[in-house]
Amino acid sequence: VGDSSVLTCPLKENTTMLIWTITPKVGGPCTLLYRADTNMAHRGNCSDNINWKFKAGLPSALEIQQVGIAQEGIYSCEVASANGNFRTTNHLTVLAPPRLSLYCDEQGSPVCEAAAGKPPAQLSWLPESSSRAEEKRHDNGTVTVLSKFTACSTNGTNVTTCMVSHPAGNWSESIAC
Predict the structure, then answer these.
(1) Where does the record place the Ig-like domain (predicted)?
(2) Fewest CB atoms within 10 A around its CB: which of 11, 20, 62, 132?
(3) What fold does the segment set 99-176 form as a domain?
(4) Do domains 5-92 and 99-176 have the same CATH topology?
(5) What is the pLDDT of residues 150-163, one digit of tens each?
(6) What is the DSSP-derived secondary structure letter of residue 71?
(7) How many CB atoms lie under 10 A from the CB of residue 40?
(8) What pLDDT, on a 0 to 100 scale, did the predictor assign at position 15?
(9) Residue of 112, 76, 113, 119 whose CA lies nearest to 97
(10) Helix/strand/coil (H, E, C) string of 131-168?
(11) CATH homologous superfamily of domain 5-92?
(12) 3-state class of 172 per DSSP?
């Protein structure tokens, strides 16, 4: 989320037409068409952050600026040339890093929250805890994971550390309640 992504479409010799067909998981399809014979580009129902990326006068790739969860989906490119038609398909998966917060609840127990991550974050504790994580799914496809530290014994230490594992990165935070 928030980064730019460039999807390439291999150009063939004597390319006459290039079509990107985008089928997002949410919302309607979008198409970008380029005709080499007229040097004409056409957009159909595409958001402003999806554009051609030109190289040597030809659109060699598709650029998505400030990628959002709504851009997740299937991106197909078809090239028409004198040698035939060639298709490339990309599946764009958008990762949203969770926001980590660690606090003490009313009973003085540490609570770790990894908010609005996609996919859901994995939470663990140091020292080890027998706690279970609860997930709350949001309409935009993100998930908040909440875990309350529970342990039979803390071996004399009152500092606990929540560790968050996620494809977008790993984080940890410590607290004494």
Answers:
(1) 1-93, 112-176
(2) 132
(3) Immunoglobulin-like (2.60.40)
(4) yes
(5) 876 556 668 999 99
(6) G
(7) 9
(8) 87
(9) 119
(10) CCEEEEECCCCCEEEEEECCCCCCCCCCEEEEEEEECC
(11) Immunoglobulins (2.60.40.10)
(12) strand
CA dihedral 21, 90, 70, 47 (to 10 degrees): -40
Q: By the 8 A CB rule, do 36 and 17 touch? A: yes
Confidence check: pLDDT of 22 > 70? yes
Of the candidates 66, 61, 59, 88, the residue with the CA atom closest to the CA atom of residue 75: 88
In whole angstroms, what is the distance from residue 79 CA to residue 50 CA?
A: 19
Order of strands across the sheet with 40-44? 40-44, 30-35, 15-24, 73-81, 84-92
CA 34/CA 7 separation, integer angstroms: 16
- Provide the pLDDT for residue 147: 97
Q: Which residues contact 18 (CB under 8 A, 6 or more apart)?
A: 9, 11, 33, 34, 36, 58, 59, 77, 78, 79, 80
Using one digit for the tens of pLDDT, what is the confidence trace for 81-132?
A: 988 999 999 999 999 999 999 999 999 999 999 999 999 999 999 998 888 8
